[in-house]
Amino acid sequence: MSACILKHLVQKLCVVISILVLAACETNLSTPDLRIVNEEALPTEMTWYSPIDIPIEIAGGEGGFNVRYIQNPEAGMSEELTEDAEGNNTISLSVVKQEGTQKNTFRLQGTPIPAVGDSPVALDSDYWLEVTDGSESFITRFPFTIGPVAIESFATSSSFDEGGANFSGVEGRNIRGKQVCTQLGSLPQNSIDKGFGLSYPNAVLLTLTEPVSIPLVFDYVISEDDSGNSPASPLSDFETSTGQVRFEPGDTACGFVLYLIDDLVIEPPETFKLDLLASQTIVSEFENRSVVVNIVDNEPRLKQESLSFIATPGDAKSFSIELSRPAENTLLVPFTVNEDNSTLSATDYSITPASQVVEIGEGEILGQVSVMIESTITSTEADPRFYIEFQGATVADSEPQVEVEFIVNSFINTEAVYSSEPVDFVVIGADQNVYLGGGDRTNSSSVRLYSLNKKGEARSVNFNDFYGISSLNGVLALKELVTLDTSNQTETLALVMEVEGRFDAVSDAWGGQDFVLMVLEVEEDGRVNLVHQSQHGSESDDLITNIDVTEQNELIVSGYTQGRSLDGSSIIPSQGQNEGFVYKFDANFDIDYARFIGDSFDNETIAVLADGSSVNSFFTSDSGIFSKTLDDDGFVDIDIETVELPQPSSFSVGGTLKYEEGFFGALVTSSFDNDQTATPSLSNDVFFYDFVIGESSEVRKLFSVATSQDDLGVDSVYFGKEDSERIGAIGETLGVFGDQSSQGGRDVFFASINAQGRPELIKVNQFGTPGDDYAIDVIADSEDKFLVLWKEDHSSGDGTFRYRITPFSPDGENLLPIN
Q: Which of 77, 327, 337, 366 is least enclosed by beta carbons within 10 angstroms?
């Protein structure tokens, strides 16, 4: 029985084992998919003649891997794998098993070489890789492109410093990681003595993005740059040459040298041309290219300072040019005359040195140039000029030339412009010509307008010696004359005249003495056309103080009156006995607004001056000078602080002007300054005050123009020229300024004031005749000079005067002294 039980147990155990084996056989134990692990690393971009060697890592499957390169589609490949494939792949590569590594690593190797007869142009195609493990396989498609090898570094422009060898471009980080060609290691290092200077080698580097399997040869040509503004000379600045750069297989960096000559001449950056020719480099995308090479001068720079001189025929002027540091050797500084911009004939002047090369000795810093203007010039232009341009001034990254401007004053009339005409001249103006105006002594209801050319010679006006203006029957007095900017060849003049009663039969008379605004257009031949005429004022006598012109050719007229309405309307009621007023006329000469302006005391308006869209009014009160600012509509701008200049005693104001936005100047004659301190001479001095007007306003006393006797400020004017902003002020004196001398009796003076930054007095020039002389008016004739109108009492006993015009340079030099 025991044997039977044991047999039965063994039988059951076998059944259980069999069931377990069958269950295991029915279970699905999957194998990982066959795949390329680093598929993204396989090449999709290649370069002609540049070898590739890329690993291919396989994973999954059952082992026993194999990888095959398929160049073009084969029969049996699916449509998905061959769609749009044209079978144009000419690149034969191979797949090899990587030795010494795991059995699942292969390498894709080969060199893209174009088919025989094909040029190495860009190629877009496909290749395939077949991967198998013996039991299964798959094929992957790889689109790829092949392009030429690229030049990694070769700029379209390059710069080298003159005066030394330079190999930094082919050293250090510039060649780090590169296979350097043999040629680069044997570049010449020594300078060559040219007799007039040393010629130094400078290395030029050419690198490739990747190595190639065949030699590459570039030709280079170093020659003149005909297209540049400042071409270097092959005789004195660089050496012309030709040569080759050869890359052997595997090289990625090579170069050559060019020679620069240190010629001891101060020069601006000069250029020559480097042509790199790729006709032999069949694997390169680098077509023939011209590279501009800049030579940076190593000599001391000239200090950047553009100068301007104004001279009179027969004058000689000298000036210095200055180096930034002393010369280490004798230096040559060439200069030229800019004929294109010059209006003075070359026969009208001479320059020393005649060679147009300034020599500055070793250790020196200054060089001298002299200019002589001929006594009689042939140029017919008004104020002709020429420009001397020097090389070698540095500003930031550019190198402009130092320019010296020479202007020849064409106003050369030393005689009295008018001495027998029955006119009391009061104003002068200038545009293309010079205009003078005043009252006719033979007829109190008439004024006359005369004209001179820029040489000071009389010219006809409206085909007569003068242009006459007459009122209907009352006294007529010319007070102001200004010129307006116009775009045509005509000149436009605006005149302001005081008139008693009605000016003409059609004008409105407002009562007492009014003012007339008249605008005239003067053609080239002197013909005069009336553009505008209108009469304005209050019901009482109106006195005019000044006229100003805005940038938009709007006119602003100021004065004062005891009246209580303007042109019949009292827009802002007056507050005292005398009240200042302002009229603003638009560009069509229609009234924009008319306003009373002042305070509760007697006011006399000194001047109104445009400042952008605002109008600044200056007027007197019982204790000094005040300002108020009017907005676009003519109302007092409460955001602008009023400025006050206290005056402790009697005073007069001779000229108020704007010289910068928000900055105004005034000539004040007084025996006290603004802090109630008496003048040292206890006589009248002329003070120049600065009014700063804005949200925070102030007044500053800057300087005085004074002698030990009475002085009087009469007028002032501003002109702005690049690097030369000036104020010209005129007046009279009974004393002597500094080291000057009295001409006898009462003299006239001209003061030049530098208006760049805080105004400063440059020079005072005292002039006149042995008798009594009187300053009348001063204008800026363009941006080149000032013209001063003055008169001399020639002791004729008839109360007449000789009227003269004297030109002054911006720095106060009398360009036409009469004694």
A: 366
As a whole number of angstroms, the distance between CA 591 and CA 611 comes to 19
Does the pLDDT at position 344 exceed 60?
yes
In the prediction, which pLDDT does 10 show?
A: 42
Other beta carbons less than 10 A from residue 109's beta carbon: 14
- Closest by Cα among 666, 609, 670, 616 to 640: 616
Q: Does residue 264 register a pLDDT over 60?
A: yes
Map tokens 């004939």 to a residue: 345
What 8-state DSSP symbol labels residue 354? T
User: Cα separation of 817 and 669, whole Å?
Assistant: 26
- Would the pLDDT of 572 be above 70? no
Q: How confident is the model at residue 772 (pLDDT cuts 50, 70, 90)?
A: very high
- What one-character-per-residue DSSP string does 255-292 give? EEEEEEE--SB----EEEEEEEE-TT-TTB----EEEE
Percent of the chain past pLDDT 90, that is, above it, reads: 49
Taking the C-alpha atoms of residue 549 and residue 543, their distance in angstroms, rounded to an integer, is 19
Cβ 50 vs Cβ 212: under 8 Å? yes
Q: Which residue has the tokens 């190639």?
A: 212
What residues pair up with 688 in beta bridges, in sequence order?
667, 703
pLDDT of residue 221: 95
Query: Any bridge partners for residue 619, and if so which?
Result: 605, 626
Q: 428: how many CB neighbours lie within 10 A of its CB?
A: 25
For residue 412, the SS3 value is: coil
Residue 22 CB: number of other CB atoms within 10 A? Answer: 9
- Give the C-alpha separation, 502 to 512, whole Å: 9
- Compute the radius of gyration of the chain from its Cα atoms: 46
Q: What pLDDT digit, counting tens, does each position of 348-363 carry?
A: 999 999 999 999 998 9
- Beta-bridge mates of residue 157: 292
Q: Is the peptide bond before 231 cis (omega within 30 degrees of 0)?
A: no
Where is average pLDDT lowest: 4-8, 232-236, 397-401, 525-529? 4-8
Tell me the residue type at 667: L
Q: Across the strands, what pairs with 765? A: 750
CB 233 within 8 A of CB 211: no
Q: Cα separation of 662 and 264, whole Å?
A: 50
25 Cβ neighbours under 8 A, 6+ residues apart: none
pLDDT in tens, 796-813: 555 678 999 999 999 999
CB 608 within 8 A of CB 556: yes
Find the mean pLDDT for residues 40-50.
Answer: 87
Answer positive or negative: Cα dihedral of 539, 544, 550, 555.
Answer: positive
CA 381 to CA 379: how far, in whole Å? 6
Spatial contact of 336 and 404, defined as CB atoms under 8 Å apart = no
- pLDDT score of 121: 73
Is the sign of the CA dihedral 596, 597, 599, 602 positive or negative? negative
pLDDT at 500: 95
Residue type for position 462: N
Report the SS3 class of residue 769: coil
Give per-residue pLDDT as tens, 613-653. 889 999 887 788 989 999 999 999 988 988 889 887 789 99
789 three-state secondary structure: strand
Nearest to 93 by CA among 111, 107, 80: 111
pLDDT tens-place string over residues 83-95: 888 778 889 999 9
Q: DSSP secondary structure string, 11-80?
A: HHHHHHHHHHHHHHHHS--PPPPPEETTGGGS-SEEETT--EEEEEEEESTTS--EEEEE-S--TT--HH
Average pLDDT, the chain: 87
Alpha helices, H only, 219-359: none
The token pair at 753 is 């004031």
